[in-house]
Automatic annotation (TrEMBL):
Organism: Pseudomonas sediminis
Ranges of residues in domain Adenosine deaminase: 9-311
Protein name: Adenine deaminase
Positions of Zn(2+) binding: H14, H16, H194, D275
Pfam family, one: A_deaminase
GO cellular component: cytosol
Cofactor(s) listed in the protein's UniProt record: Zn(2+)
Active site feature: E197
Keyword Metal-binding annotated: yes
Function text: Catalyzes the hydrolytic deamination of adenine to hypoxanthine. Plays an important role in the purine salvage pathway and in nitrogen catabolism.
Site (described: Important for catalytic activity): H218
Catalytic activity: adenine + H2O + H(+) = hypoxanthine + NH4(+)
Length: 315
């Protein structure tokens, strides 16, 4: 990566902590917790990182998360991510975690949260990286389950800045979660949601109008709806775009076809993020580098993208 790109101060606003689980750490945690894995070794696992769509990725992502059992595991996961951030001059992070992926396996909510939170606090003290944690609901599960998760989170209300919505998008529109998002907002939590990654522009409208989100995660399909484009430009609603993710999950065929710079030039507040860096081929820095290499992103454009990420912080 060019040094001028690395040196830019950046914020990362779209990162699933479970998606930062590198194969080496996954194998180390499996050994520590005495869990048998379906892959022979790190290379075999890495070779399985070939996806035709979001669901194929999610199946592997949830299987990988199975090695996370103890508070120390969640600490080590988060700490490894923060060290990558430090090297790439990511000075602020607003990561997601999926409590249901863990509580449904019998891991207590507070075990997950305490490990993540302690690493974030240490990251602030020792690495100078500020943070705001976002609790994400799994949209392939019913809204009642999201309500239960929110209830479990409330004793730790101060640990979060907001709620998100992730997992399988198609067939699970934002409107299914209108009531639980209203409840979360009434607790003073910010709202964000994945919308317009694989799903249609209508899902972005719903996320804005019904969930009252402050930021759109992905949102690249907004470009198919001119009225929606005008709204997100007029209201300067940030999009947390994840270029390498979009290629790995076949949202775009090649990086040369990605629309992030076209959106930027039209005045959309787009930002660059890594989504699930262990699975998609890189962290924020590699995502910026790919835009430089394949889309001819200039230094001026990179600066605007980095500034957008700092402006779009919720914490
Ligand atoms: N989309 C939806 N859900 C997710 C993703 C994603 O890119 N990564 C982890 N959960
Ligand atoms: Zn995501």
């Amino acid at each position: 990566m060019p040094e001028w790109l690395n040196a830019l101060p950046k914020a990362e606003l779209h990162l699933h902590l479970e998606g930062s689980l590198e194969p080496e750490l996954l194998f180390a945690l499996a050994e520590r917790n005495q869990i048998a894995l379906p892959w022979a070794d790190v290379e075999t696992l890495r070779a399985a990182y070939a996806f035709n769509n979001l669901q194929e990725f999610l199946d592997l992502y949830y299987a990988g998360a199975n090695v996370l059992r103890t508070e120390q595991d969640f600490y080590d996961l988060t700490w490894a991510y923060l060290q990558r951030c430090k090297v790439q001059n990511v000075i602020h992070v607003e990561p997601f975690f999926d409590p249901q992926t863990h509580t449904d396996r019998g891991i207590p909510f507070e075990v997950v949260l305490r490990g993540i939170q302690q690493a974030l606090v240490d990251g602030e003290k020792q690495l100078g990286i500020s943070h705001g944690l976002i609790l994400s609901f799994l949209r392939h599960l019913p809204e009642e389950e999201a309500f239960k998760t929110l209830e479990q989170a409330m004793p730790f209300r101060e640990a979060f800045i907001g709620v998100g919505l992730d997992s399988s998008e198609k067939g699970f529109p934002p409107r299914l979660f209108e009531r639980v998002f209203a409840k979360a907002r009434s607790e003073g939590l910010h709202a964000v949601a994945h919308a317009g990654e694989e799903g249609p522009p209508e899902y972005i409208w719903e996320a804005l109008d019904l969930l009252k989100i402050k930021r759109i995660d992905h949102g690249v399909r907004a470009i198919e709806d001119e009225r929606l484009m005008q709204r997100i430009i007029d209201e300067q609603i940030p999009l947390t775009v994840c270029p390498l993710s979009n290629i790995k999950l076949c949202v775009f065929e090649h990086m040369g076809q990605h629309n992030i710079l076209e959106m930027l030039e039209r005045g959309v507040k787009v930002t660059v993020n890594s989504d699930d860096p262990a699975y998609f081929g890189g962290y924020v820095g590699e995502n910026f580098a790919a835009l430089h290499e394949h889309l001819g992103m200039t230094e001026a454009q990179a600066k605007r993208l980095a500034q957008n990420s700092l402006d779009a912080r919720l914490a």
